[in-house]
Structure formats: C-alpha cells, structure tokens
Design a protein that fits this description.
This protein is mainly beta and 356 residues long. The protein is 6% helix and 42% strand. It is built from one helix and 29 strands. Strand 19 and strand 20 form a beta hairpin. The longest helix has 20 residues. The protein is globular.
C-alpha cells in the first residue's frame, strides 16, 4: 500500500528547497513588467524618465508617459519629423521599407518599399527628404515630383561603404557618416568589401562636390550639430569591429567647410553599468546632446542625455536597444525613439535645435 504521508526526510528536503527559493527571491526581487499596450497605464511620474542631475529636471515632465507607438519591425532606425505633413518617417532596414506615423490619429503605414535598405533620414530646408541607402551605398534626395536624385555615391572614384546618418547645415551643405555597416551583412544591405576608410563627408551646396571632412574615427555613426552649428558631434561605434576603438562621442569645432580640434565629448561608460554603444544623436536648443544607446541591458539601454559640458544628466529607459532618435511634434518637444523592434515617443520640456 502506498504511504500517503511524506517521510520526515522528504519534508525537510521540501522545506529547505522552499526556504532557498524564498531567499533567492528576496535577493533578486522580480520587477513587474511594464504594460506597453496602455491597458494598465503607468503611474505618474513615469519611473523610466530619470534625472541623474538637477539640470535635467527642467526637461522632465511629471505627468507624461513614454509611449510605444508601434512595434513589429526588425531593426528600426532613422526617425525624421516632417513639420508640414505632421508625420514621422523612419526605416526598418532589414525589411527594406520606410514607415510613416501620422500625428493626426497615430496611423502607421509603409511609406516607401523598396527603400534601398535605408538607414538615416532627414529633411532639408526646402522640405525634401534625404536618405542614406545601405543597399545602394548612396545618399539620395526625394524630389517634389517623386524622382530620386543621387547626392553622393562615390568618393575618389570608389563606391561609398554604406552611408548611415545625415544632417543638413543652413548653408545647404549635407553632412553624413559612412561606417559601412550595411555593406558588411546581407541583412541590412548588400554584402561586399569596404573600399574606403570609414569617414564623415560633406556635400558642398555650390558645386555638389563630395568632400571628406574627417576619418579620425573608427566607425562614425550618429551625427549632429550644436544649436549654433559651431560644433559637430559624431558617435563612434567602431568597437563592433575594432577592439581598440573607444565607445564614445567625439566633437570638433566647425571651421567653415572643415573640422578642427577633434576631441572626446563623452565616454559611454556608465558607472556600475559598463559601456554600451552610442548610435543616433540630436541636440536640443540648450545644447544638450540626446543619445540613443544600448547593448548593455536594463538601466542603460534607451536614451541618455548629456549637458554641453559632457556631464550625463538624464535617462529615458526603454526595454529595447535604442538605435536612433529625433525631436518632432508641433512644438518639436517630442522625442521619437526608434528602438530595435518598436517606435517610442515621450513629451519633454526640451525643444529640438534643428529641423529634423
């Protein structure tokens, strides 16, 4: 006959296992997973908008949440705000499409397919969209009549690697980075050899000539100007392929068509967390630099904000790696974040310094 009563040994074993589990749970408490659907709204103030320095308090709103606007992408990049159409365009590189989110009702649709495996996007001062195409190794402009103008595809007779991120200067010049990621894998473009040293380029508005402005960086990624256009910031993500490369953001003084006095602006090392990668970067009107970053984990991935002096002052934590960001909305005070498989947005009291 089966014994219906547990033995003393079995009871003690069960008790010890239960105590050990409770002790482990106490040491590693489970943080409730945030509901990004909006069914169970987050309580204000949003705990994932964090001030690391009192200077960030003026940009942080106590009664607004981080919202997930859309999900289902493979690798989201290059958000850019169109003020006339009141929509956001961004790239889903592996799917070879550009997506569009409408401010009116939140509708999301495919805007362009195929899209040359585009990465970074922006708009020029005439409202025309500019895109960096990984697949075709070029920078293009979409004209009012729908035609595509090639802005740059070769330097010194050799094909570009795979243009990545792009900004415009008020003088009409187009500046972009060319780290070559899209040429290193079929997933984000067309795999092939890099024929040029990774560099930052400028397209002269007068003669359309392509000029290399610096190659003092391992893999130049995100790019932005200071509010007065006197400084240029570039993120270096070169440690993906060069072990000696620093995980940092560099800054140069802009001297007309040239750059001088290149130096480190910030290291992406965060005390107690480690160092991840800086990807897309944008400036606000006060000169703070907002950085899409990740590849570390919870407590690091999302957006980090640096004061003009280089101090880390704030964070917007996301459950995914943030590739890129931009300011948009009617008052340019919404931070849109293209983060891995999803698009996020949050209202701030910061205002974007530039048009996209």
């Amino acid at each position: 006959m089966r014994n219906e009563h547990p033995t003393r040994r079995a009871f003690l074993a069960t008790a010890l296992a239960t105590a050990a589990a409770e002790k482990l749970a106490a040491q590693s408490p489970q943080v409730p997973q945030r509901d990004w659907t909006g069914t169970n709204p987050v309580r204000y103030p949003d705990p994932d908008i964090i001030s690391l320095d009192k200077r960030f308090n003026k940009y942080k709103l106590g009664n607004t949440p981080i919202r997930r606007l859309h999900t289902g992408m493979l690798w989201a990049e290059g958000p850019a705000w169109n003020g006339v159409g009141r929509y956001l365009v961004w790239s889903d590189i592996p799917r070879d499409v550009q997506m569009r989110w409408l401010d009116d009702d939140g509708h999301v649709s495919v805007m362009r397919n195929p899209a040359g495996y585009s990465n970074g996007n922006t708009f020029d001062y005439q409202g025309r969209q500019l895109s960096c195409e990984h697949g075709n190794r070029r920078v293009v402009r979409y004209e009012y009549d729908g035609k595509v103008t090639v802005i740059a595809d070769k330097f010194n007779g050799k094909p570009l690697n795979a243009p990545n991120d792009i900004v415009v200067h008020p003088d009409g010049a187009i500046w972009f980075t060319d780290p070559g990621y899209g040429a290193l894998m079929h997933y984000e473009g067309n795999k092939g050899a890099l024929e040029l040293k990774e560099a930052v380029y400028r397209v002269d508005p007068q003669n359309s000539r392509l000029e290399m402005v610096t190659d003092e960086i391992h893999k130049p990624n995100g790019i932005c100007f200071s509010p007065d256009y006197k400084k240029l910031y570039v993120a270096d993500s070169g440690s993906t392929h060069y072990p000696e490369a620093p995980k940092n953001i560099k800054v140069w003084d802009v001297d007309g068509k040239s750059l001088r006095r290149g130096r480190q602006f910030v290291s992406m090392e965060m005390p107690g967390k480690g160092a991840g990668f800086a990807d897309g970067i944008r400036a606000d009107t006060d000169g703070n630099i907002w950085v899409g970053c990740g590849w570390v984990g919870p407590g690091y991935d999302g957006v980090q904000v640096f004061a003009p002096e280089g101090d880390r002052i704030g964070q917007i934590l996301l459950p995914e790696i943030c590739g890129n960001l931009c300011f948009g909305g009617r008052k340019r005070n919404v931070v849109f974040m293209a983060a891995s498989q999803s698009l996020y947005a949050v209202y701030t009291e910061a205002v974007g310094a530039h048009i996209a």
